[in-house]
Description:
By secondary structure, the chain is an alpha+beta fold. The chain contains ten helices and eleven strands. The strands form two sheets. Strands 1, 2, 3, 4, 5, 6 and 11 form a seven-stranded mixed sheet that branches. The protein has a four-stranded antiparallel sheet with strand order 8-9-7-10. Helix 1 runs parallel beside helix 2 (about 95-110), helix 2 (about 95-110) crosses helix 3 (about 120-130) and helix 6 runs antiparallel to helix 7 (about 210-215). The radius of gyration is 19 Å and the shape is globular. The mean pLDDT is about 95.
Amino acid sequence: MRQVTISVPATSANLGPGYDCLGIALSLRHDVTITKKREPGLEITAEGEDAGLIPRDESNLVYQSATHLLRRVGIEPAGLHIHQKNEIPIASGLGSSSSAVLAGLFGANELAGSPLSREEVLQMATDLEGHPDNVAPAVYGGLVLGVLGEEGLSVDRLDVADLAVVVVLPDVVLLTEVARAALPKEVPLADAIFNSSRVGLLIHALQTAAYDRLSVAMQDRLHQPYRIPLVAGMAEAMQAAREAGAAGVALSGAGPSLIAFAEEGHEAIAGAAAAAFKHAGVNTRQWQLVVDKEGTLIQNKP
């Protein structure tokens, strides 16, 4: 029997104007232990955040990703026990699916004797997810710029300050497919320029903890204006967070989480945003987090 534990951080992608290219790792983790059993069959157990929502059958994303890699390297999956210890809320815009995909891929790669490099596993995860802005920061930690083009995947891990953030998750369902469908097929040139002119400023602000720049740098016209109306109370919660002292506020990923950057007053910011959602009839969960700079961690046990 051989066992491996993979620990993957949460992520916030589509960061501000960095739609589908910029993401940051956060200090919630999804720890997955995969044990190769002598007897055939699949057993899945789970604990922690949203544990009751984690599938216990072959539809489980960790299992699907693990078997995908094993078959890719010519190994037919045998008996597996998967235990998930989860801190990342599911369907929250915080990279829960990416964490499951990466845990399955890296876990299977270790059990197979590490035939693939870290970069090859990341490429496989990008292929499965469709874009790199969640999986890349989850792999490397910190702030990551990922570009997927005709030449392949280009990923750069950027230096980032020790930032603290507030995450407020409203108790609503916003499927990624619905959030994607809300976006227009084309955008005005002025909106494209608006975003591109702010990406560099955002990166500089996050690298230097220039909180005074974030109110401008976090602005976006490519996806947030179309998605904010999908979440009851979101516009009011974002405004409440700003009024409570947040320097920059945005949707996390495709939503429905709100992420707010601030130098201080994090509890007040979280409370103000939660109160605005409550006024709209929506309950919330809140976290005060820091940037995770470790990325995906692997622990083998013979």
